[in-house]
Design brief:
Number of helices: 9
Distance between the termini: 151 Å
Shape: rod-shaped
Number of strands: 0
Radius of gyration: 50 Å
Structural class: mainly alpha
Largest sheet: none
Helix content: over 70%
């Protein structure tokens, strides 16, 4: 029987709740278009998570190794809770608070990096914290959290396994010897609980160390990127300043050449006008001389004609 691809389910449960239905309906339509009616029905049955559940799902999908660390700590807490070991229980409870606080901070960071996520002031982090605490107390809740398909926040009243060990009231005087299991079994269980507590503490430290190393690597990457961008910006500014200086120098040279050209043009215009006046005078004088020559030639012709008649 065809099944819904896990990557599609993860993609849907990464989608912000206000866009979940539209994304699911689009996936149903695509499955129907490809002829996979069974997958379409399975996708249609997927429920929209609340915002708090969506944030927990993001944590499980984006940082599964952190969610997996909850199991070790939960096991140690339940083991210590069974024997009511106050000092160890207080230590593990402090570790529980530290782990949950670190996970809530990681949820806040993931939400800040997720498009269309609510603003930091609108994140239901109290419900996220309650759900993570419930996962530490209840194996079934922990499994739901690890699946990345949680539908709503979970609240757990109290912490530890139910039923709790029975208590005996001490009213004073010497304590009545307890009818406990044999000593070897008790010691073995104590040693097992101590190892579980040590594993949980080590897992919590390793988880925090990995988270800090990731943050350090991310910070160094951001620093290197910022330094590279700064170097590029400084080089671009330097190149721009040099280009502007060259342009200003070229403009100054062009202005000087423009002034020289204007002066030469002015002198050329004056020379042209003088030449035009000289040409006009020369033409007038040439016309006058030419007229005088023509008059003289006419007189000579008349004189020659008179001499011919006399003879």
């Amino acid at each position: 029987m065809p099944t819904v691809p896990s990557d599609l389910v993860q993609r849907l449960y990464r989608t912000p709740p206000d866009r979940f239905v539209a994304a699911r309906d689009a996936a149903v339509a695509e499955a129907r278009r490809t002829g996979d009616a069974t997958a379409a029905r399975q996708i249609a049955r997927l429920k929209r998570p609340t915002v708090a559940a969506w944030l927990v799902n993001l944590l499980a999908l984006e940082r599964p190794e952190l969610v997996a660390d909850l199991a070790s700590l939960a096991e140690a807490l339940r083991a210590v809770q069974r024997d009511l070991k106050g000092a160890k229980l207080r230590v593990l409870s402090a570790q529980r608070r530290a782990v949950v606080s670190a996970l809530v901070a990681e949820v806040r960071r993931i939400a800040a990096a997720t498009p269309d996520a609510p603003s930091a002031g609108k994140l239901p982090l109290a419900e996220v914290e309650a759900t993570l605490n419930a996962a530490l107390a209840d194996a079934e809740v922990a499994e739901q959290v690890r699946s990345g398909r949680l539908l709503k926040a979970v609240h757990y009243a109290g912490f530890g396994e139910v039923p709790r060990p029975q208590l005996r009231l001490v009213t004073g005087g010497a304590e009545e010897p307890a009818r406990a299991p044999d000593r070897e079994r008790t010691e073995a269980r104590r040693a097992r609980d101590e190892r579980a507590a040590e594993r949980a503490a080590r897992a919590e430290r390793d988880s925090r160390r990995r988270a800090l190393r990731r943050e350090l690597a991310s910070a160094r990457t951001d620093q290197e990127r910022a330094e590279s961008e700064l170097d590029s910006a400084v080089a671009a500014e330097r190149d721009g300043t040099a280009a502007l200086d060259r342009i200003e120098t070229e403009l100054a040279e062009l202005e000087r050449r423009r002034a020289v050209a204007e002066q030469e043009l002015s002198r050329a215009r004056l020379a042209r006008r003088g030449a035009e006046r000289t040409l006009t005078a020369a033409r007038r004088r040439a016309g006058e001389v030419e007229a005088a020559v023509e008059a003289l030639d006419a007189e000579e012709e008349d004189a020659a004609a008179g001499d011919d008649e006399a003879h």
